[in-house]
């Protein structure tokens, strides 16, 4: 009890500090705008948030004579917090900065729990989740399915990329290829390629074009290698950017947006690479297994848990071969790990 009170008090204090910091930022944005009245602020124009530093964001001008320029901007007091990938309307000032005056509606949101366990958006308008895996380290079906459920929940189209195809030349693995094929028969896009040897990278470039993507996957599968191959010469040391506040400097990890030379954008940060299942309900989990959808609502019992109940439409579909036993057991495993 005492412990809980303490942590509630701590949470309250953290929240208070954050609120005060946001209020200070709002005042600064207002002052920036006020001190520039009388035409010193340029005209309203569209922009894209490409990095986020607490109270300020870097905005890239997306059209007009400033197109391609990056400006560090404050946001107007009435605007909600912005994240990398947000599309905004902003006005340049005469000192290489600017003020954001409006936020465009988000198409998608990638969310993660913050230190207090509350879901917070970390990137906006991502429309491709690149799920990377490889023959080595050995993939866990379960992990891929978790990513797929998360993608379905966030309404972001997933792409399954099996990297290190070169390893299959020396140690063939028909089972793994069959597995990839099973996913593509479910309707998912899949690619087999090698970041190391450059095989199949053009297919990936074509998939990334016209999309805003994030890369996820377990450690060692080759996400950095792939990103480096696609973004030659970019400094990908994201995170650990310092932000100056009234009380000295504190470090934040920020997501950054990069443009692929062949088209399309990447949003990347260590936190985003860890994107996964957060708080989802039993129903959302079921919906996340796309081949289950036609059978949902057809069980004999309304509250069927699809474990061993008679008249379960999902179990019958497994029997009939319409749902694979592997995906069914993967669903059960994920269900057992969901917080109630
Ligand atoms: N054989 C082979 N090795 C590869 C390939 N791509 C990456 N690797 C190797 O796999 C290892 C891990 O690659 P990384 O790019 O660091 O993997 P990552 O997914 O970014 O790992 P984390 O940073 O830990 O998340 C490195 O030793 C790479 O050289 C490939 O196509 N073929
Ligand atoms: Zn059932």
UniProtKB/TrEMBL annotation:
Coiled coil: none
Residues in EngC GTPase domain copies: 124-273
Cofactor binding mode and count: Binds 1 zinc ion per subunit.
UniProt EC number: 3.6.1.-
Binding-site positions, GTP: 163-166, 217-225
The organism's place on the tree of life at top rank: Bacteria
Listed GO biological process terms: ribosomal small subunit biogenesis
Ligand binding (Zn(2+)): 299, 304, 306, 312
Major subcellular site: cytoplasm
Family: Belongs to the TRAFAC class YlqF/YawG GTPase family. RsgA subfamily.
Descriptive protein name: Small ribosomal subunit biogenesis GTPase RsgA
Species of the source: Halopseudomonas oceani
Lineage summary: Bacteria, Pseudomonadati, Pseudomonadota, Gammaproteobacteria, Pseudomonadales
Gene name for this UniProt entry: rsgA
């Amino acid at each position: 009890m005492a412990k809980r009170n303490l942590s509630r008090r701590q949470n309250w204090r953290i929240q208070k500090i954050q609120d005060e910091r946001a209020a200070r930022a709002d005042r600064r944005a207002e002052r920036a705008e006020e001190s520039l009245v009388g035409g010193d602020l340029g005209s309203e124009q569209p922009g894209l948030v490409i990095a986020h530093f607490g109270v300020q964001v870097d905005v890239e001008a997306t059209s007009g004579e400033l197109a391609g320029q990056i400006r560090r901007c404050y946001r107007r007091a009435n605007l909600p917090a912005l994240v990398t990938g947000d599309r905004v309307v902003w006005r340049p000032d005469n000192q290489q900065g600017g003020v954001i005056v409006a936020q465009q509606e988000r198409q998608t949101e990638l969310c993660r729990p913050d230190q207090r366990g509350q879901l917070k958006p970390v990137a906006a308008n991502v429309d491709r989740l690149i799920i990377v895996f490889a023959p080595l380290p050995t993939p866990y079906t379960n992990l891929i399915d978790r990513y797929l459920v998360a993608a379905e929940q966030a309404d972001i189209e997933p792409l399954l990329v099996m990297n290190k195809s070169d390893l299959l030349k020396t140690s063939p693995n028909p089972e793994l290829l069959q597995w990839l094929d099973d996913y593509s028969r479910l309707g998912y896009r899949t690619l087999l390629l090698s970041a190391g040897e450059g095989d199949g990278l053009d297919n990936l470039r074509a998939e990334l074009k016209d999309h805003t993507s994030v890369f996820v996957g377990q450690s060692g599968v080759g996400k950095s290698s792939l990103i480096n191959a696609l973004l030659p010469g970019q400094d990908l040391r994201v995170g650990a950017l310092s932000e100056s506040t009234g009380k000295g400097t504190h470090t934040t990890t920020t997501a950054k947006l990069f443009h692929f030379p062949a088209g399309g954008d990447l949003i990347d940060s260590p936190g985003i690479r860890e994107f996964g299942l957060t708080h989802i309900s039993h129903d959302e989990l079921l919906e996340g297994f796309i081949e289950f959808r036609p059978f949902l609502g057809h069980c004999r019992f309304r509250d069927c848990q699809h474990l061993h109940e008679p008249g379960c439409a999902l179990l019958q579909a497994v029997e009939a071969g319409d749902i694979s036993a592997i995906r069914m057991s993967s669903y059960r495993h994920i269900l057992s790990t969901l917080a109630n």
